[in-house]
Structures are given as C-alpha cells and as structure tokens.
Amino acid sequence: MPRRTDPKDRPTGLFSYFDADPERADLDVFGRIAHPDRRGFFRGAGLATMGAMLGAAIPFHRNMPAGFIPVALAQADVLEGKDGLVLLADRPVNAETPAHLLDDPITPTNRHFIRNNGVVPDDLDPAGWQLTVDGLVDNPMVLSIADLRDRFEVVSMALTLECGGNGRAFFDPPASGNQWTYGAVGCAEWTGVRLKDVLEAAGVKDGVVYTAHEGADMHLSGDPDKSPISRGMPIGKALTDDVLIAFEMNGAALHPMNGAPLRLVVPGWPGSCSQKWLTRIWLRDVVHDGEKMTGTSYRVPNRPVAPGEDVAEEDYVIIERMPVKSLITNPATETDLTGESAEVRGHAWSGDRTIERVDVSIDFGATWQTAELDPPVNEGAWQNWRTTVSFPTAGYYEVWARATDSAGEGQPFAVAWNPKGYLNNAMHRIALRVG
Amino acid sequence: MPRSLRLLVLALLGTAPSAMAQADEPYGALVDRPGAEDTFIYCTACHSGMLVAQQGLSRERWDKLMVWMVEEQGMQEIPEPDRTTVLDYLSTHYGPDRPNFPRPK
C-alpha cells in the first residue's frame, strides 16, 4: 500500500517529516503507536484522534501501515451527509442550520444540527451495540438494538430537539461556548422504543429520582477515564410517553454525528439530555452528578440577573424544559422581494407545552397579525405556522414572529441574559427589502 | 521536534482543510498576532481553534476558563511565561468587543 498518493498541494514538510521517521511522526501527529507488525493501532493509541480528524470510523484500521497519512486528511469533511450547515467548530464538531434551511415541516437528516461534546466513537456498528439499563432497578438488563425492537413497541414520532445554548451568539456581554445563532434546533421523525417501557420492564425501584446517561464518545483530552458528557433527567420526565430510545432518524439509520446507532431523544428539554451513542442508562436516588450536570453547565441563575453580573455557583439551577420560541424559515433574511405580499412561515415550540398562537409583525412590533397555526403532529413536535403579509409601499421591513404557549407565556423582545448563554428565546427577526 | 515542524503538525491537527491550505493563516481560525503560536499550540492540542475564535471574553473570564480547563477538562497547567502570553493574546484579540468574531451576527 503506498504511503501517500499525490503530494501536490499538501504540506510537504509534513510528508518529509513522516518520511524521516514514520513512527515518531505517528506518535507526534496522531498519538499513534502501531502494533509490533507495524500495522494498526496498538491498544487503540491514536485511532480516535485519526478517526476524529477523518470524521468517521476506520473499519480496516488494523491493516493501516505505520506512518500512513490518510489521503482524506487534506479534504476531510466533518459535515458529510449534511447540507448547508454552518460549521462552528470542527473538534468537537458543532454545526448549525441557517433558519431558511429549516423550512421543512419535519427536519430532514441532512438539515439537522450537530452538537458534539467529545470525539465521535470509533465503532458505530449497530450489530454489536449494547445498552445497559441498571442502577436502582429490579432487573438490570443488557439489550442489543435487536432486543429493543423485539421486546418493546416500536414507535415513530416527530420530536423537537434544541440545544440549550441556541441563540448564545446574541448575548452581550458574550457568553462562552459555541456561538449558536438560530439553527441549533430541529424536529426530525425519530423511531425507537419508549424509554418508559424499557424502564418499566427493568422495574423502577422506590426512591429513584433521576436518570443517568452514558455514551460511547470520548473526552477531547483523550483520557479514557473522563466522560465528555453524562447527563440525566428527573424520573418523572423519563416516564412520559414521548421520550424515546431511538435507532432511526427519518426512516433511516441515525447519522453518525447525530448519535448512531442509538440515542435518547428527550423533546423540549436541552439537547444534552438526549445522550448520543447511548450505552447505559442507570437510575439513581440522587440528582445525577455526571459530566456537565454540575457546576454551571446547563444551568441558569435562580433569579433574573443583570447582563454581566457575577452569580455564585450555588445560585444556579438545572435547566429543565426549554422556553417558548418560534423561527421564521421563509423568506430567508436579507431577501429582496418584488410584489406587495409574501408568505411568511416557520415553526414554534415550547418544552412540555403546546403553542396557542403565533403573531407576526412587519412594523417593528407596532401591529400584529395572527398566523394560521397547525397542531403538533404528536406530543413533543414543533408546530408549523404561516401567514401572508402585505407591504404598503416599497422599502425596508423587518418581520418579527412571536409565539405564545399553552401556559400563556410569550417570547420576549430582548435577551434574558444569563452567564452561560442559555435559553435565548427572544423573537426571531428577519430583514426584507421590498422593491 | 523542531518548533516549525511542531507548528505544521499542529496546524494540520487544528484547522479546517480550507484554512489549512492558506499559507497566510498559519494558525487557522486564530488571528496571526503576537502570542498566536503559543495559544495555538496549547489550545488546539485538545479542541479546534474555531472554538476559541468564537469567544469574546474579558481577561478575567479567559483566566477563569483556563483554570476550568485545568481543573475540569484535563489540560496540563501552562507554565509561565507562556500562560501570560496566551492570556494576553486571548484577551486582546478575543475580548468582549469581539474584534475578530468569525461570523456576522
């Protein structure tokens, strides 16, 4: 097998470096140590790094010669299978969807955002995948995906997932983390089994208060003893009908970046509750204290705070449901329109609630018209809405949308600032030039 | 490993392919100003420089974030004077006024 193909347009220094001492270069670049036969990855050293750089598992990695530079490295596409997403970071991979590409009533897989905390697991083979259900249960279980399909009712539901930090880019002063604008949200059709059914089969013991989730992804530091993320939810939420252990997305296998081959889908709560590459669910008699459950992760102050205010760590509370929100998916912002009217449409959602009304304004909020609003296709799905707006003259317009939910809560105009940049549900505004 | 080569290797590890091809962006998403090299080496050992370049934090908050990286995220303590170099670079070029925010709001 050739060690390199065409070195043109490649960093030649790297190739000469590998030429001079392939094993040393392997160690320095990938953290890789080959087996004694100079192939493969001894004890997996460097395999995850190389896999992360390639954006995929390497099925024949045992054959890969020492000192080998994958040809795909210079053109590795971490967004393979996605269309039009904006890459916020490539290690870990985080990518959001521009609002106008979220126009479909049900989000296609290639338009669903990616929020990773660690390195995507190396082996995503569904055949050998195992889910452990244990902790405070009567019958601890280890289930294959086939077991899940055979033993429990398989259901398909459209479910809204939104990153807790969606909208963080608009915080002032800025909050640290990925600077999501609008597009860390989607509502795909997920197929799987109800978490409730699995937990009931396992037998939930008295005194359980929280679930704890584990996935197969690896911490960015490469430390195998560190988890990139392990969150959970109150047992009451886990036992509702719309929390799924999913093995299909829009009728096909899960996308690798969306948690293949098995994940939780917890609609209406921060996306981090929906553990990807799911390997274990255990039940606890305390609030789970896994990675990104504690400190200030996925937490907000227990009171409204001023922008930039310091908040003591003990004053933070865990985020549960996501707030009422809407998105304008047509027209795209910054569109030049001709004609006197346009159809404005989008989606609206509110964690654990339904949307009662969506209002639209074209005059900076002075007057509003109520949009036509569909019911959710099932509990946990966003609701689609549309209305036709008429423009009295040519000029610059902003279209604003404001959803109101079943508890009477509506979207604010301004960002309710919090130190970690969560839960921004300010109204979506788009710009239109009418000619 | 020679410093220039180490940089090249890290550039390969830490940058998007498109950025990698551009010789005038040796530190990928991070602006090429004094301190960029140290910042690049320490930060992109674990995560993308794109993650750094999205932030807009005060010096105090960058300092806290670096403490958190060590205490919670498995980063090795950065020895002085490098730590100050990195902190100077981050707070100068990735402060709250976001002079180098990679994308329009």
In short:
The complex is a heterodimer of chains A (435) and B (105). With 435 residues, chain A is mainly beta.
Mind explaining what this structure looks like?
- The complex is a heterodimer of chains A (about 425) and B (about 100).
- Chain A contains six helices and 23 strands.
- Chain A is mainly beta and about 425 residues long.
- In chain A, strands 6, 7, 9, 10 and 11 form a five-stranded antiparallel β-sheet that branches. A five-stranded mixed β-sheet of chain A has the order 16-23-22-18-19, with no helix packed on it.
- In chain A, about 50% of the residues are buried.
- The N terminus of chain A is likely disordered.
- Chain B has about 100 residues and is mainly α.
- The longest helix of chain B is centred in the middle third of the chain and has 15 residues.
- Classes of the chains: A mainly beta (about 425), B mainly alpha (about 100).
- Chains A and B meet through helix 1, helix 2 and strand 1 of A and helix 1 and helix 5 of B.
Reconstruct the topology from this structure.
The complex is a heterodimer of chains A (435) and B (105).
Chain A: H1 12-20, H2 22-30, H3 47-54, E1 86-90, E2 93-96, E3 114-115, E4 130-135, E5 141-144, H4 145-151, E6 154-162, E7 185-194, H5 195-202, E8 210-215, H6 235-238, E9 244-249, E10 252-253, E11 263-265, E12 278-284, E13 299-301, E14 316-318, E15 325-330, E16 335-337, E17 341-349, E18 355-361, E19 369-370, E20 372-373, E21 383-390, E22 395-405, E23 428-434
Parallel strand pairs in A: 4-12, 16-23
Antiparallel strand pairs in A: 1-2, 2-3, 4-5, 6-7, 7-9, 8-12, 9-10, 9-11, 13-14, 15-17, 17-21, 18-19, 18-22, 20-21, 22-23
Helix pairs in contact in A: 1-2
Chain B: H1 3-14, H2 17-20, H3 36-43, H4 49-53, H5 59-73, H6 82-93
